[in-house]
């Protein structure tokens, strides 16, 4: 049986997407990040292995990004929902190989990155 464990956090940060009709000027969003692990339930803990550690690591990443200009903070990343989701996925994937997906959103818009099965 597939079991999924989810961790969610938020942060507030600004960005600019030059030439974009909505985000073409410097402004900020309240971003929501949701990550999902796929795995088996650990009989000792009753939870998907590493799910509690994942929540803490996700919050640490959010704290790093909170109140920052994402263009400056992540110069190699296009600060869209898609780009931020890929960035967070790369930060977490080595520690959490069972990472199934990362979703980043603000308001009514979001993007989801689904990890390929190995």
Structure description:
- This protein starts with a strand and ends with a strand.
- With 118 residues, it is an alpha+beta fold.
- The protein is elongated and about 50 Å long.
- It has helices spanning 51-65, 70-73, 81-93, and strands spanning 3-15, 27-39, 99-106, 109-114.
- The mean pLDDT is 92.
- Helix content is 27%, strand content 34%.
Overall 3D form = elongated
Rg: 15 Å
Query: What's the N-to-C terminus distance?
Result: 18 Å
* Top CATH class: Alpha Beta
Q: What class do helices, strands and sheet pairing give?
A: alpha+beta
Strand content: 25-35%
Query: Helix content range of the residues, please?
Result: 25-40%
Order of secondary-structure elements: EEHHHEE
Q: In CATH, what is the homologous superfamily?
A: 6-pyruvoyl tetrahydropterin synthase/QueD
Number of domain modules: 1
Q: Return residue spans where pLDDT drops below 50 for at least 5 consecutive residues.
A: none
What is the residue-mean pLDDT, rounded to a whole number? 92
- Per DSSP E runs of 2 or more residues, the count of β-strands stands at 4
CATH topology: Tetrahydropterin Synthase, Chain A
User: Helix tally?
Assistant: 3
Strand order of the largest sheet: 1-2-3-4
Can you name the CATH architecture?
Answer: 2-Layer Sandwich
Largest sheet: 4 strands, antiparallel
Task: Compose a concise summary of this entry.
With about 120 residues, this protein is an alpha+beta fold. The protein contains 3 helices and 4 strands. Strands 1-2-3-4 form a 4-stranded antiparallel beta sheet, with helices on one face.
């Amino acid at each position: 049986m597939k079991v999924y464990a989810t961790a969610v956090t938020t942060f507030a940060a600004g960005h600019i997407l030059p030439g974009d009709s909505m985000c073409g000027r410097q402004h900020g969003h309240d971003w929501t990040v949701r990550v999902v692990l796929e795995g088996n339930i650990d009989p000792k803990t009753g939870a998907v292995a590493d799910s509690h550690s994942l929540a803490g690591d996700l919050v640490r990443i959010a704290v790093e990004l909170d109140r920052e200009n994402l263009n400056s903070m992540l110069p190699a990343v296009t600060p869209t929902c898609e780009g931020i989701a890929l960035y967070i996925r790369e930060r977490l994937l080595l520690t959490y190989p069972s990472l199934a997906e990362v979703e980043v959103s603000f308001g009514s818009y979001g993007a989801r990155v689904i990890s390929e099965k190995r």
